[in-house]
């Protein structure tokens, strides 16, 4: 039960409805395609410990609902996310067109420094493609995103997407660009002792005051 | 304790006030407070005491000091108690709205915990006038409905039938709903046909899908196909008004053309759906020949719109008002195009177009419907596909009902989660009209939980108060962990009436109790089920010192593993607890 890891990163999976967010997460966690996936309501959840550049990192991944109507709800989960997979469906231009709005949400609500990787999912459906690789990579470049085309069905590039994002965050920590200590950085140190450090503080608060007056 | 406190209260308040006319012993105690010397003998070093403390302990009568301390302690306790009582009474006033004050017990008359059985139900059906509605509901509340008769009982619980209706009245209710369903189905299917037609023209060949955004053609295509809000920017090409192809040659799946005649006069006109055509990128015409008439059409339509498809219950007015009646709103072409003067010939063609368009829908409506159909299709396909009932034909029925409901509520539109709520109804009732009617009834309550409905925040606030009153230990823990007083971990619970938290068989059992509870114990029974879920795992939550994230994760993982009957039992007990609390105030 007890996991040891050096860091914990909070990740988001965001993007329009039906782009395969839950399937990407499921593929990453379980290494298989989720056949009977239902649309996500509220938020779903997954975590996995990965090894990146000699460090063990626990990814705590929040999988969100896609329909815009739920955006106000989804937003409450954004806070303190270190990384995000921004997902669109390569066979649906509509999902590609709304990327900018999702990105704005992520940068304003999670953190301006959030590390985002753009994922053009459903790569296996190439004959039905509506968005070219070139067009999307241009968008990624303009918005300073990493970019991969993925397939939750075959598993192609799924692991890479998560790992790439994690690696970038680690690099930014190493270079000092990201400060894990800052509130809402979405990064926590993994050792259990640190988590317990938080407890005595609240214990002190309820301890009786020394003076009765 | 209370009487003692209140008799002493005068003194306490005086002490807290520290007015200028203090008696001598008060002054002395004030002195001791001012220098905080009560602890100086124990806290600071003995050498420091005389110099820093003005009141040397041995000069003060020890008894007086103790007295003062005692009073202060009692005062603090009293004020704490008073605040707590005030808080409690506020919460009680608040909570009293959550439950029915009259307690209906399971054991009087006995047997309610056995549930509503087939026997009882057949007795009721033979003698519906003399059976007490409340008695039946009480049995449902305490024991559920026998599976075999759910199909018959649910329409009563949901309000499609009323208890005490005669057979004839029930038939009347059925035929009214059947007629309405048939009409609505015809209405939106006619509209769907136009939407599909429009889509076909917007995407004539697969390769035109690649739009770089640079050419006007693709720009137009994008506007037509994707944009659901800016209807005034949609271009219409007059030159595309060719006679429609016969349906047989179309490559798409056959449209339900035969349905068209079934609708009321307003929809029958949709048989001329093909008249609305849009510029397509491969029309081969220079884009200069496109001109915008949409705004003109729009405004004419708005004027000619007095006749809508009002429902008898007034539920669908917003949604259906977009439909254009076949009135001659366009008998005179309006000066809609800014380029009128220079394009006389086109205006002529425009007049022709307008004449044909009388029978059509507003662009806005078409866009909205297209968007909703798209969303519904996406979700219906993946709705409960691991449950045996949802074979492709049954999914198609689910879609028809869903679209019909959405057509009548286009102002809200389809929201994810609606499918989840409809699916169990269809499974039990296995009848399209009935499921449609019952779903409409169910949504009267449930629609408020959806975004912008406002009920969700109220649920969260109520949960907070309930936990505070019924489980203060857990409340303290939650309070310490800060974040999850927002109770977002209950979001899905409330949105879907626990549908995703439970196995299908348990969903049936829980839902009918929720519906019956409304008349028996609480209109907000869902709150108590939510609370029961929290309580069922309270030790785990407490012992692991779970925070918001842990709790969301925990309950996501526990989904479909709950013991529904146990949860219901706890929930009923919690209602009873609150009822007792209120009674004993």
UniProtKB/TrEMBL annotation, chain B:
According to the UniProt entry, its GO molecular function terms are: GTPase activator activity
This chain belongs to the protein called: Small G protein signaling modulator 2
Alphabetically ordered keywords of this record: GTPase activation
Q: Where is this region: Disordered?
A: 234-270, 306-343
This protein's gene is called SGSM2
Q: Where is the composition biased (Basic and acidic residues)?
A: 332-343
Short name of any one Pfam family annotated for the protein: RabGAP-TBC
Q: Cite the SMART domains for this sequence.
A: TBC (SM00164)
Keyword flag Cell membrane: no
Xref: InterPro entries: Rab-GAP-TBC_dom, Rab-GAP_TBC_sf
Q: Which residues form the Rab-GAP TBC domain?
A: 144-518
